[in-house]
Specification:
416 residues; alpha/beta; FAD/NAD(P)-binding domain; D-Amino Acid Oxidase, Chain A, domain 2; nine-stranded mixed β-sheet; eight-stranded mixed β-sheet; 31% helix; 25% strand
């Protein structure tokens, strides 16, 4: 059976669902298509659950020689790589290193600022109408430091953020113990108060998708790699319920977006960072109230509906290579010295991918060489955070409204 729509949105992670909702709110008839036929089951499923209002500066390529040596020898829990992946990702890593230089990094941070500043208010608008408020905790998150040297650097980084009018509280060992008494004593911490966290990221994405359907949106399952552009310029998207013919097409497939843009002739500097998570039970009587980043080692412990979730740092590997969750094993040993986690609650570690460009900015906007083709992907570690605000910007551009910010920093052709 053939269906028609104004817009077909490919991908039902937080980014795709949010784009579908914003387009729908502006009067577009939208079909949301995902291979699972359900929302939030891939990248939006496995994250620390942060709506990261304080994430002004992107994750940068390290420059400390000692850190680089540990990374090169695969001895750091913060990053792991497959030797077989290096030929394919080497040029991207070199560009990532260059874009992480101080001046370029500051420029990229300022470019991302309009999105980051509005991320929470755009989520709030959806959380309220989607009935997801019970999943949200407005208590911020904690970045702790085990050593005095790391703490000094962390405090300097926090000072750089104060100009952006963020609420930041510095915690000494006693103040941290008062806030989280079951954590081991460390040198100190920084508490970012503007950030929200959620108890189940996938459930939030699913509540947004349910809102989209309640408002009349169609949510279809299908392998979209077989899409075609028709002679009249529209897009034919295969689904299990037949073809969807749409005037406009939004690619919001996260780490799988290259399966669409590369066959269409777009050569973008796109790569993925893989990551893992595991849920744990906790010792009787123990409690973790805030998401906590062990900044010395690069993992997060976050209280979730299922238990305490441990999320790892980055792994550089081919997207579809066999999982190698060595970072889970490393981080688990470290986490047990910080907080009394007990047995694993998942049968195996979850693995997901983060879609990244070397400047750590997403692509949001019109593809230059195809009628009705729009991109909304590459949000690196912050797709869950930036999905709703990116969806608003994209919808404004697609419907001819005045964009709330200049979309030029996110343009597809910035990589020429």
């Amino acid at each position: 059976m053939q269906q028609t729509a104004d817009v077909a949105v490919l991908g039902a992670g937080m980014v795709g669902v949010s784009a579908a909702l914003h387009l729908q709110a502006r009067g577009r008839d939208v079909a949301l298509v995902d291979r699972h036929g359900a929302a939030g089951l891939e990248t939006s499923f496995g994250n620390a659950g942060l709506i990261e209002r304080a994430s002004i500066f992107p994750y940068l390529f390290p420059r400390d020689p000692r850190d680089l040596l540990y990374y090169a020898l695969n001895l750091s829990p913060q990053a792991h790589y497959h030797l077989s992946a290096l030929p394919g990702v080497a040029s991207w890593l070199l560009r990532y290193f260059r874009e992480s230089g101080p001046e370029r990094a500051k420029s990229h941070a300022l470019a991302a600022l309009p999105l980051v500043e509005r991320c929470l208010e755009e989520h709030d608008a959806l959380i309220e109408v989607a009935g997801a408020g019970e999943l949200v905790r407005r208590i911020g998150w904690i970045k702790l430091y085990r050593s005095e040297s790391r703490l000094a650097k962390g405090l300097a980084d926090a000072e750089r953020l104060r100009e952006f009018k963020l609420r930041i509280e510095v915690l000494d060992a006693d103040a941290l113990a008062a806030l989280e008494p079951d954590l081991a004593r460390v040198a100190g911490a920084v508490h970012f108060l503007d950030t929200c966290s959620v108890a189940d990221p996938s459930a939030v994405a699913q509540s947004y998708a349910a809102l989209f359907q309640q408002r009349g949106g169609r949510f279809l399952a299908g392998d979209v790699r077989g899409l075609q552009q028709t002679r009249d310029g529209r897009w034919s998207v295969p689904t299990h319920d037949g073809q969807v013919i749409a005037r406009d097409l939004v690619v919001a497939l996260g780490p799988w977006s290259d399966q669409i843009f590369r066959p269409l002739g777009y050569d973008l500097p796109f790569a993925v960072k893989r990551g893992y998570h595991m849920h744990y039970a906790v010792a009787e009587g123990a409690k973790l109230s805030h998401p906590v980043l062990d900044a010395d080692n690069g993992y997060v412990l976050a209280p979730m509906t299922r238990g305490v979730r441990l999320t790892t740092g980055a792994e550089f590997a081919r997207r579809d290579a066999k999982p190698t969750p060595v970072q889970i094993d490393w981080d688990e040993k470290l986490a047990r010295t910080l907080f009394p986690i007990r047995e694993r609650l998942d049968p195996k570690p979850w693995m997901g991918c983060r879609p990244c460009f070397p400047d750590m900015l997403p692509v949001i906007g019109k593809a230059p060489r195809h009628q009705g083709l729009w991109f909304d992907f590459g949000h690196q570690h912050h797709g869950f955070t930036l999905g709703p605000v990116s969806g608003r910007l994209l919808a404004e551009m697609m419907t001819g409204a005045e964009p709330f910010t200049d979309p030029a920093p996110y343009a597809v052709d910035r990589f020429r």
